[in-house]
Structures are given as structure tokens and as C-alpha cells.
Amino acid sequence: HAAYIYIRGEYTTQVKVLQQAIDEAYAAGYLGKSVSGYDFALDVTVHRGAGAYVCGEETALLESIEGRKGQPRSKPPFPAVVGLYGCPTIINNVQSIASLPYILANGAEAYRAHGTEKSAGTHLFGISGHVEKPGLYELPLGLPLLEVVEKVAGGVWKNRALKGIIPGGSSTPVLTAAEAKTVRLDYESMAEHGTMFGSGGLVVLDETVDIVALVKNLIDFYHHESCGQCTPCREGLGWMLKITESILAGQAKSEDVDLLLELCDNIEMKTVCVLSAACTMPVRSYLTKFRHEFDAYVEGSTGTPGTPN
């Protein structure tokens, strides 16, 4: 049997630590031809990627390990049937696997004692953006979002007002300050508010954030990381970027903002993987919830970013 740990090529220090742990496991007999003395062989290999964001998609990851361009495959067949080198393959995120030792040692009920009925256990939250104490925190699921921002991350920095929170990484729809008051950090609460838990990467936005500039940077990232396989993603994200740049430059019309929304509808879920949707879903949320900021650029208004004149 073979297991592969896929890790970003930029994580040089982490690769060294991980490889050392694997070497120690081999030396202790936990890996190799006879795992802990049983008639079961398992080899673990660390595979360093080249930094492509799209390789977070499971089949693009398989393509990368096999030595090809990181490009998502059409499904079916699914990896559990035809995966790495044509063999049945199970692919799990590292956080899912990291939960197993506690469950195996203490049982499922002990794990479910944390969190909520439908969102059990703990989760790693990377809290960044405009907070006093950014960092990585392990917390039980189900906590009120603003309570975590205030008590764990020290609140919005410099005593500024909260504008919004990105709840699960850049691909998740944004929450306004008003919406954040009733959101809890669990899967069901996020769904009720039209967003997603995602990776647990919370990004706090204070009152000075220019939403249009934020959206431009977001689209720029996904356009750059597109593998180029699908026309809606390859071309559509490029057009979205051009339109957003024209809005920032004060060269757009109100119809261009509407066109951005139209492009979101025409691109989303019309590709092999969901990278395009990872861009269009949050962009749509910004356009819907902060339309006045886009209109301010179109109308030539000036002043504090995000504040209508």
C-alpha cells in the first residue's frame, strides 16, 4: 500500500519536519514492509507541489503527483474508482486526517462532545486581517463568530468599526457586519446565511477597506491561478478583471457593474472544477452587499473607501 502527502513546494521548513517524522516512523516500525509487526505494508511519500492553487482540487493533485500539469480531470470516474496511477484512491484534507488520532484514542462520543450536534468536534481557524491578535486557533465548532473575533483575536484593530468578515477563505461569500452578529462558526449557520465554512480562514475587514480594490485583487488571483483548461474560467475571469480595473480607474459605467454580475452567472458551474465558482460566488456577494462602493467609483465620488458621499 502507498500513501502520499502532497504539500506546497513553498513550505520548505514544513517538508523537512514532515520527512523527519516519517523517517522516525520507519525506524520505529510504524511504516514499511511490516507495520507494527502485522502483515501489512505501507510506504509514505512526501510529494512537493510547484505552488499551483488549482492543485488543491483532488484530481489536479493526482495529475501533479503523476508528473503532469496540475489540471482537474472530468468526473466520473471518481478517484475512489480510478485514482492515482489508475488505482482506487482516497483523498482527504490534512485536517480531516488530523482528527483521527483523537477519535481512535477516545472514541466518537468524546469527539462529538465538542461542537454542535450537526457540526461536531474542533477546527483550526486561521484568523487574519484587521484584528489585534491574528493567528491560528483550535476552537470547538458552534461558537458565535463575533465572540471569537472579540475574545480570541482581540477585536478589530485600532478601535475601528467592522465592515465585514470573510468566513472561510477568499472563495466564500462575505458577511456584512450586521450579518456577522447572528452567525455561529458551524456548517449549518454558515449555510443559513448564504455562505460557507470553507477552510476556516477568517479574514476581518475594518471600515477602511476598499471593497472594489479587494474584489480586483481577488479576481486577479483566481485569473492567475486558473489552469486555462475551460473557456468560461480562462476567458471569463480575464474579462471580469478588466472590468474591475476599469471601475477602479473611474472609466466604467453603471452597466459595467451589471455586466460583472452577468459574467458571474455565465461562468459559475460551467467548468470542469469549481475554481471559477470560487471566484464568482464571493464576487457576487460583494456586488450585492456593497454595490454602493462600485457605484461610487462609477459616479466619480471621493472620500473614505466604502462610505457613500
UniProtKB/TrEMBL annotation:
It holds the Pfam family Complex1_51K. The keyword Iron-sulfur applies. GO terms for biological process: cellular respiration. Gene3D superfamilies: 3.10.20.600, NADH-ubiquinone oxidoreductase 51kDa subunit (3.40.50.11540), NADH-ubiquinone oxidoreductase 51kDa subunit, iron-sulphur binding domain (1.20.1440.230). GO terms for molecular function: 4 iron, 4 sulfur cluster binding; FMN binding; metal ion binding; NADH dehydrogenase (ubiquinone) activity; NADH dehydrogenase activity. The keyword DNA-binding does not apply. Keywords: 4Fe-4S, Flavoprotein, FMN, Iron, Iron-sulfur, Metal-binding. Belongs to the complex I 51 kDa subunit family. This is Uncharacterized protein. InterPro entries: ComplexI_51kDa_subunit, NADH-UbQ_OxRdtase_51kDa_CS, Nuo51_FMN-bd, Nuo51_FMN-bd_sf, Nuop51_4Fe4S-bd, Nuop51_4Fe4S-bd_sf, SLBB_dom. Its cofactor is [4Fe-4S] cluster; FMN. PROSITE patterns: COMPLEX1_51K_1 (PS00644), COMPLEX1_51K_2 (PS00645). It comes from the Eukaryota.
